[in-house]
Amino acid sequence: MSKLKSNINRKKVGNILLLMGLLVLVFPLLESAYHERVQPIERVQPVEPELESAPPDEEAIDKTFKPIGGRLVIASLDLDLEVGYGVEDEDLKKGPGFYPQSGYPTIGNVSIAGHRNAYGNPFMDLNILEKGDIIQLDYDEQHFVYQVEEVFVTHDRDWSVVGPTSDPALTLTTCTPLRPVNGQYDRLIVRAYLQK
Fold it and tell me: What is the DSSP string of 11-36?
């Protein structure tokens, strides 16, 4: 009789462990589906950057992006962040960083990368930014104000988003979804244009 009880107890423990294992496997799927349903974001196809055909004016010739830090303020998200230089993993552990290929704020596309689900999650809520939201950037002892034009998702190898733009722009990039089911991230992009 005690052998029968022991076998029944083992089966119960085995079933509980099996159920817990299944929950561990299914939870990321459910969480990812929840985030995609609650905060759906339009996916766009990668595009090649447009090259400017007109030569830059005289003022633009000596304005090159410098490998220095800055400050990013997004009041609607209650964010006030120091921005470093570089987008390698070691750089982004310290916080958001400027892409080395960034353009100067008055003439180019200033591009900043940051984590959404690691190292303090500085860009956690970028997905809730809306057209018209204001982003401020302090860089090279100057203050720049940008207005959000669009928030979208693109492929993780779409480098066109940090390429040159026809108008002075600010591009913020981060990973999405928060926890991908298959381990593959796309890129969440915020594109804003210089106001002053």
Answer: HHHHHHHHHHHHHHHHHHHHHHHHHH
Residue 164: alpha-carbon gap to chain centroid: 19
Task: Please write the tens of the pLDDT for every residue from 124-137.
Answer: 999 999 999 999 99
Please indicate, yes or no, whether the overall pTM of this predicted structure exceeds 0.85: no
| Distance from C-alpha of 119 to C-alpha of 109, rounded to nearest angstrom | 25
Are the beta carbons of 187 and 175 closer than 8 angstroms?
A: yes
Torsions phi, psi of 2, nearest 5? -70, -30
Question: Domain 58-194 is classified in which CATH homologous superfamily?
Answer: Sortase (2.40.260.10)
Alpha carbon distance 163, 48 (integer Å): 9
CA distance 171 to 190: 6
- Whether 172 contacts 112, CB under 8 Å: yes
In this structure, what DSSP letter does residue 160 have? G
